[in-house]
Design goal:
The protein is of the alpha/beta class. The protein has helices at residues 14-24, 50-59, 83-102, 120-134, 159-168, 181-187, 194-204, 239-246, 269-278, 285-293, and strands spanning 3-6, 29-32, 67-70, 107-110, 142-146, 175-180, 210-215, 217-218, 229-230, 255-258. The chain is globular.
């Protein structure tokens, strides 16, 4: 199983430190931001200890295809209100694509963006325009459009939105999907029958385009459109549904990443990965995480 979590990338070891963190959780995959997700400040690739990180991944059997990069939240290609915001997003997405190449990864998860009250059709057209500009030198990098919860004016809470992007961009072969369980639950999908969700996804988008999943429980009821992650088994989705999703044979090849909340400042990922791998919910997990923190 290719399963891991979001890991931090900070000084002094940067990517090497991120890989070490993933290994400490018993992970076989990892996701990182190449810098703070809220701004454009980035360290030079030469400082990030990439070669050492890749060597450690190989030593521990973590494939390069299991290294996922998440684009920063500041990229909003759907913004129809502020040209400068759209232009910043295009420029920075170009640079992020090059950083993904430098990391020898090929999955870049991207929030499709918000249309800022311009309407979904206008937002989708703007995203197409932005992707066409940003992906001119995309190479073998796959832009994994993340499914969204539908809060505010978000694009991407319907599979049809992603289909529109695939059908209209210049580089459709490089458009893939990252499915977030919290987001699709909050968008209104019933995860008690995940095969039915996959059937719908396959009908609209194509199952072959699903290359990444974010495995998160939700603080919200189905259809709330709020996007608030919860720890595995402690939310409205529940452990049994999430465990069934993780072990569904139709997505066995897909990289799965946890983005659940820290517990009293301590990452829960080691315990959550163990639960999901073992298929047994531990009701004392939050207490154990708190004990680890002490």
């Amino acid at each position: 199983m290719k399963i891991g979590s979001h890991v931090s990338m900070s000084a002094p070891d940067y990517v090497l430190g991120a890989v070490k963190e993933a290994i400490s959780y018993g992970a076989t995959a990892l996701m990182l931001y190449t810098g703070a997700p809220q701004n454009t400040r980035r360290k030079a690739i030469e400082e990030l200890k990439v070669d050492e990180a890749l060597a450690l991944m190989e030593q521990h059997g973590i494939e390069k295809s299991s290294l996922v990069v998440h684009a920063p939240y500041i990229i909003n290609l759907a913004n129809c209100a502020k040209p400068e915001t759209f232009e910043l997003g295009v420029d920075f997405l170009k640079r992020e694509i090059e950083r993904v190449k430098a990391l020898h990864a090929n999955i870049l998860v991207l929030h499709p963006g918000s249309h800022v009250k311009a309407g979904e059709e206008a937002g989708l057209e703007k995203i197409v325009e932005g992707l066409n500009l940003a992906m001119e030198n995309v190479g073998d990098v796959m832009i994994a459009i993340e499914t969204m919860a539908g809060k505010g004016s978000e694009i991407g809470y319907r599979f049809e939105h992603i289909r529109y992007l695939i059908d209209h961009v210049k580089y459709p072969d490089n458009i893939k999907v990252c499915m977030d369980t919290c987001h699709i639950h909050d968008a209104g999908f019933d995860l008690s029958d995940f095969d039915k969700v996959l059937d719908e996804f396959d009908r609209v988008v194509g199952l072959d385009r699903l290359i990444c999943m974010h495995i998160n429980d939700s603080k919200n009821v189905q259809g709330a459109k709020k996007d608030r992650h919860e720890n595995i088994g402690f939310g409205e989705i529940g452990f049994d549904k999430l465990c069934a999703i993780v072990h569904n044979p139709r997505v066995s090849h897909v990289v799965k990443i946890l983005e659940t909340p820290y517990v009293e400042g301590y990452p829960p990922y080691k315990h959550e990965i163990e639960m999901l791998k073992g298929k047994v919910f531990d009701p004392e997990i939050l207490t154990k995480i708190q004990q680890d923190a002490k």
